[in-house]
Structures are given as C-alpha cells and as structure tokens.
Design a protein that fits this description.
Layout lengths: L1 H29 L6 H24 L19 H9 L3 H19 L2 H10 L3 H8 L5 H27 L4 H13 L11 H26 L7 H12 L4
C-alpha cells in the first residue's frame, strides 16, 4: 500500500513537471520577438501600400474632392472678393465652373502620388521602419510627408494646371489679380498663383486621408490583412506606452 502511494505521488509529480514544462513552453511562445528587419520593412510596406492605396483611390475617384464638402477646394478667402464681384455681374456659373475644375485638377493630381509613395517606401531603412512601427499614430504619414512632399508638389502642379487651362482660367485669373493689386486703395494684395494654393490644399487632403488609413491599421487588427502586417503591428502593439 505504501509503495502504491509513493508511486502515485511520483506519477503525479511527473505529470506536474510535464504540465509545468508545457506551460513554460507556451509562455515562451507567447513572448513576441521583435520582427526581423525584413519582416518590419515588409509589414510596413504592406501597410503603407494599403493605406495610401485606399487614400489615393478615394480621392482620385470622380467627385473625390468635388462631392466631399469636408475637403472640396474653394477659392482662397481673399479671392472671394473677386468671385463675389463676378457673381454680381451675372458670372456665377463661370465661377462655379472654375471651382469644379480646381477640384477635378486635384483628383487628377492625386493619381500621380502612388509611384512617389512607393519610391519612399522602397528606400526606407530598417531604423526608419522600426521607428515608424513603434512611433504611434501618424508616424508613417509623418515619414511620407518628410520624404515625398517636394516630389508630390512637383507632380501635382502640371495636373492642376492642365485642369485650370481647360477653362481658360489661369491667364485670365493672373491678369485679373494683377489689375486688382495695382489699385492703390487695396492694402492686402492677392496671390495670383492659384495653382500653388490648390496644390497645397490637395497635399493636405491626401496626407490626412493616408493618416486616417494608417491609424485604422494601428487600431484594428482586422485591417492587417497580410501575415507580415499582422506580425509587425502586433509587435508595435506591445511597445505602446501605457
């Protein structure tokens, strides 16, 4: 009887040891290691492709700017004085046509963003990738702003110019503004560079949309649709400051 009791205790001990080993193994498995440089870069590349791809697709669609009151580009505040004057003499439809063309130009310009974004992602270093992964909301968008704004601005302007030229507006606008500015009674002069104004508005709308998409990926694991994205951002989740 005593031997049987000892054997039983010994058996239980072995089972307990085995159970502890299993638990220890599972616990070790649950400890998430940092992704390799290739995994971090790959996960970010997937996320950025998804984020700016979705953003570009939304904004470049017909009506992407024109039908969205939150980002629809209107004339500059100062230029509204001239627009109001034109409306007062029965040229309201021409003013509306110009505003429509501003926004169509923005929609066309956004399409040029994808290869520029891709180039920035391709040239991303491991240090950049890890910094972006653990940088929190908007970190990837900030990286893109720093590395693509100049190239995007150069790419956008011809598209916007082309749209403005379709209504014969650019030269007429510049002439009108210059005449307006020559009036000695006008203290606040207007900027005749409407293209630059529209480019700035377009860039702002694009980066806001990309940041919105980026933050969805950071906040919602269901948005991480590739294995690399899932691993990279799961690791990023563990690095969040409380």
């Amino acid at each position: 009887m005593k031997k049987l009791l000892i054997l039983s205790i010994f058996s239980v001990s072995l089972i307990s040891c085995d159970a502890l080993k299993i638990l220890a193994t599972e616990a070790a498995t649950d400890v998430l290691s940092a992704p390799s440089s290739a995994e971090a870069a790959g996960g970010l590349k997937d996320a950025l492709k998804q984020g700016f791809g979705n953003g570009v697709n939304v904004l470049s669609a017909a009506g992407g700017f024109n039908k969205n009151s939150a980002i629809r580009i209107l004339l500059p505040t100062d230029a509204q004085k001239i627009a109001d004057k034109l409306r007062s003499i029965g040229m309201g439809s021409q003013v509306d046509n110009v505003i429509n063309k501003l926004n169509e130009g923005a929609e066309a310009a956004v399409l040029t963003a994808k290869p520029i974004f891709m180039d920035a992602v391709t040239n991303m270093s491991f240090t950049d990738a890890m910094g972006i992964l653990t940088g929190g909301k908007g970190a990837a968008t900030t990286y893109l702003k720093q590395n693509t704004t100049s190239a995007l601005s150069s790419a956008f302007k011809p598209k916007i110019q082309e749209s403005l030229d379709k209504v014969g507006f650019t030269s007429n606008w510049a002439d009108l503004v210059n005449i307006y500015n020559r009036n000695p009674l006008i203290a606040n002069k207007l900027n005749p560079d409407l293209n630059g104004y529209v480019t700035e508005k377009t860039l702002s709308a694009l980066f806001n949309k990309v940041e919105e998409e980026e933050n969805l990926i950071r906040e919602n694991p269901a948005k991480r649709v590739t294995d690399l994205m899932a691993k990279a951002f799961k690791y990023a989740d563990t690095q969040k400051k409380p």
